[in-house]
Amino acid sequence: MQTKKIITKFLLALALTFLIPQLVILYIWEDLSTRTSFLLLLSTLALIGIGSYIIWDIVKSIRGIFKDLGEMSPGAQQETVSGSKDELQVMESSIEVLSKKIVEDMEALQYSAELVEKTKSELNEALLHAENIMDSMGDALIVVGPALKVKRVNQSAKKLLGYREEDLLGRSIDVLFKEIFLSDFSTDALIADKRMCFITREKQEIPVDVSIRPLNDPKGGHRGHVVVARDMRMTLKLVSRLKAANRSLEESLKKRTADIEKIYTDLKAKDTQILQQEKMASLGMLATGIAHEINNPVGYINSNLEMLQDDLERIISYMHLLEQGLSAIAGEPNQDRREQEVAQFKEICSKMEIDRHARESAEIVQESRQGLDRIKQIIHDLKRFSHTGESQEESVDLNQEIQSTLNIVGHELKYKAKIVKDFGCLPLFTCYPHQLNQVFMNLLVNASQAIEERGTITIRTFTQEGSLFITIQDDGPGIPPANLKQIFEPFFTTKAPGKGSGLGLYLSRGLVEKSGGRLSVESTPGEGSTFTIELPLAKAGNGVFEADLMMTLPAPSPSGAAK
Amino acid sequence: MTRHCILIVDDEPNIRSSLTRLFQRNGYNTLLAENGADAFSLLKKARASAVISDYIMPGQSGVRFLRGIQKHYPEMIRVILSGRADMARVMAAINEGVVSHFLLKPWDNRVLLETLRQAIHEREHSAYFAHLLQSGGTPGASDAPLELTYPGISRLREADNGAIIIDD
Known about the structure:
The complex is a heterodimer.
Chain A lengths: L1 H27 L6 H38 L1 H9 L4 H50 L3 E5 L5 E4 L1 H7 L3 H4 L22 E9 L5 E12 L5 E10 L1 H98 L4 H18 L1 H33 L7 E3 L1 H16 L3 E7 L5 E3 L1 H18 L4 E10 L2 E8 L6 H4 L19 H11 L3 E7 L3 E9 L10 H6 L11
Parallel strand pairs in A: 7-9
Antiparallel strand pairs in A: 1-2, 1-5, 3-4, 4-5, 6-8, 9-10, 10-12, 11-12
Helix pairs in contact in A: 1-2, 2-3, 2-4, 7-8, 7-9, 7-10, 9-10, 10-11, 11-13
Chain B lengths: L4 E5 L3 H13 L3 E5 L2 H8 L6 E4 L8 H11 L4 E6 L4 H10 L4 E4 L4 H27 L7 H7 L6 E3 L5 E3 L2
């Protein structure tokens, strides 16, 4: 149907295009023939016919359009359905509807256009803002695409690198760095503060700390990287200045340390000297006791030797008599006279008490030897005790060391106090024995001096929780609480002037600490004082100590069983 | 003639045995004690003319011990034989008459013997005079040499005829 209509229109158009030129030609050629007039009339009629058809067709088409338009608005439709079918009316209303619609559409369109305009300006503003922010950054910012070509740079980047923006855009990023690797551009991890080096336009190298962050869109696509580089020149300068300052500080510190070390060494020498003086002072104090202890054996040895001399003289004269008697008897032929001589000789013998003197001289020798051993022991202990200066560390049994000290000070103590020894099983301890001996001596002498008339000094040794303990307890009047705090301070003494240096406990604490231990005191007025030396068993020497031994050691009894 | 007995108090056994030898060889008997308490219990059973004590002894000092001796046995000669002593106390004790003699260890045998001999002699002398004073008489001229001859005399008695009798 449609095709047929189109063909008809096409044919009509063709006829028109053919007829109009022919008509024109005919009008031009009118006077050439009469036949032509007929043709002209015919052609004109045909043309009018065709033209009328075309106009009618056009009117029909317009009517169709208005009808369609009228259907668009419900009011118009109603009108079409109910109202009169006057075409003009229909057309009027349709046009009205159409124009109204057009106005509406135009308004909507204008609003949209305004919105677009507003959005665009806002976007521009935001972009400008972002650009401003980027440009105001002190750090150089370079955005690269997935192919590591520069897509965007900020003001600082341009300034730092010395390039214009157009020189940078599209350039490969590796040109801008001395050394940069593909591995630096991870698509999933951030590289932070990596020290790199920019190469500027003038081929100058600038140290920078670089962070490279991958740019990924939310859908997981990779869009490139943001490279932020911080100029480190100032920082490095500061660091190097700081280092120089540090160095000079270190040097002055080293010098100061050397000074302090020298002072320390001097002090230490002085300390050793003081220590020695104190030791000698205490030895001096003990000297009378030691003298007494030596004088006892010397006394009886001396007395004994005189008697031994007597005995020897007697024995020698007895031998002379024996000799004379023997020769007299041998030269005497008379039997009776001979027997008389023998009887006489026997009488002399019994008067001389040779048997007794011989027996006693043996006793004298034995006792004198005991005395000499005693003297030897005292001298040995004294020597061990008065040992000066630093020596080799030794692994020693502290029980034996305490005994050795007791041999020296015991004479001082035994008339003042009963000594109770409650020695536990101790592992060997590595230390300077003479130093600890001095501590034992100080504490023991102090204990005996604390006792007013007569009392008990209890020495306990034991191990507990990885430490070796030595406690020296007296049952003297105790230390007043006010003095207890000062007791380890140098030159603190409660003794009469000239009787004590006030250094004993101060030095003792120093010596114990030198051995890695601690010296502490507990005192109850009226009940006595206990000094405790605690030494770390980590220092116990030669691995002699066995862990399970510690478990089996008896805990020290508070009453202190006498031995 | 009576052998004088000497009480030796010392905590060192070898001192006791050497002093015993010395005194026994020189005509004395000896009593031995380790300390003051032992000495007193010995004195309950036996008599001694003199006591030789160490100054420093466990239990009590020699001076204190001798003070006790002075109180209970005033006639005994009290000697201190020591290697060491609190001199101030010893001097005071000597001045008070608690200690008659103070000797130092190591001692000289002869000095010790002579000291004791003289001390015992003097004591007997004074005992003799005391006796005479008690009896109201006057000492005879021959008394002193007599005593020197018989150092062990403990008592003198005047006979009816004026002769001096030595109780022995």
